[in-house]
Design goal:
mainly alpha; single chain; elongated; 10 helices
Length: about 260
C-alpha cells in the first residue's frame, strides 16, 4: 500500500531573487586565434621610415611652413602614422585599423603620386616642394620619395598585406572632405601673400593670379570628380581582388568524412 497524498501541501520558501542576467559578448580572439604577422609589421615599418625620410628631407631643404603646406607632405605624414600603427597591430596580433582610416591614407597618397606624374612632372615650370626653380640632388630625391616611392609602396601594402572587402562605397564621399578643405586652405593662403610673390599658389592648376578664379575653380572641380572616381574604383577593386593573407583557423579538432 502507498501512503495517501496530503490535501494541503506546505508553502515552499520563496527563491531568493538573483541579479539579472547580463549579456556578454564573446571576443573574436576566443573563437579565432589571433595571428601575429611579423613580416607585415617589418615591411610597414619600412614604409613608415620611407615616408618619414622624405618628409624630413623636404623640411631640411626648404622653408618648413611652405613645405608643410603641400598636399604631398600632409598625405605622407598621415601615411607614416597609419602604417606605424598598422605595424604595431600586426606585430601584436591585434585587429587591423578601421578601413575608413587606412583607405583614406591610401587614397590621398595615390592622389599625390598621380597628380605629380600626370600634371606636374612634365610641366613647363619645374615643380618643387622646397621653392627651388629646378630641383636637383637631394631636392629631387625628396620629390621622388614622396611622389613615387611611398605611393607605390602603399599600393603594394594594400594589395599584398591587407585583407580585401573592407572598404565601403559610402566612405568615398567622406574621403573627399579633406581635398575640399585643402582647396579652401590653398586659396586662403594665397590671399595672405603679396601678389607676384613666387610660390603664392602651390600648384600651377590652382593659380588664380595667372589664370583667373574661374579657370582655377574649374580645374579644382575636375580634379575633385577625378578623385571621387578614383575612390570608387579603389573600393571596387578592394572587393574584387583575392585575399593575400588567408589563414586556416585552428579549432583544436578535425572534421573527418563520414564512414560508410
Amino acid at each position: 500500500m502507498t501512503a495517501p497524498i496530503p490535501r494541503d501541501l506546505p508553502d515552499l520558501p520563496a527563491i531568493p531573487r538573483t541579479h539579472a542576467l547580463l549579456l556578454s559578448s564573446v571576443p573574436a580572439s576566443a573563437v579565432v586565434t589571433p595571428v601575429r604577422r611579423p613580416l607585415a609589421a617589418a615591411l610597414r615599418l619600412l614604409l613608415t621610415g620611407t615616408a618619414a625620410a622624405g618628409v624630413t628631407l623636404a623640411f631640411l631643404l626648404g622653408n618648413p611652413l611652405r613645405v608643410l603646406s603641400h598636399f604631398a607632405i600632409q598625405s605622407n605624414i598621415l601615411l607614416a602614422l597609419v602604417t606605424l600603427l598598422s605595424a604595431r597591430r600586426a606585430w601584436t596580433a591585434r585587429r587591423p585599423l578601421p578601413a575608413a582610416l587606412t583607405g583614406a591614407a591610401l587614397l590621398y597618397v595615390m592622389i599625390t603620386g598621380l597628380v605629380y606624374h600626370l600634371l606636374l612632372a612634365d610641366a613647363t615650370v619645374p615643380f618643387s616642394l622646397t621653392g627651388t626653380t629646378a630641383p636637383t640632388g637631394w631636392h629631387l630625391v625628396a620629390v621622388h620619395l614622396l611622389h613615387t616611392v611611398t605611393p607605390l609602396a602603399a599600393v603594394l601594402d594594400w594589395l599584398l598585406l591587407t585583407a580585401p572587402g573592407r572598404l565601403r562605397l559610402r566612405r568615398a564621399a567622406t574621403w573627399m572632405l579633406y581635398p575640399t578643405l585643402y582647396l579652401a586652405f590653398c586659396l586662403a593662403r594665397a590671399q595672405l601673400i603679396t601678389p607676384g610673390t613666387p610660390g603664392r599658389y602651390l600648384y600651377p592648376f590652382l593659380d588664380a593670379e595667372a589664370h583667373g578664379y574661374r579657370h582655377a575653380l574649374a580645374n579644382a572641380l575636375l580634379l575633385g570628380l577625378s578623385f571621387y572616381a578614383l575612390a570608387v574604383l579603389l573600393v571596387a577593386l578592394d572587393h574584387a581582388r583575392p585575399n593575400p593573407i588567408s589563414h586556416r583557423a585552428k579549432t583544436g579538432f578535425r572534421l573527418r568524412p563520414p564512414v560508410g
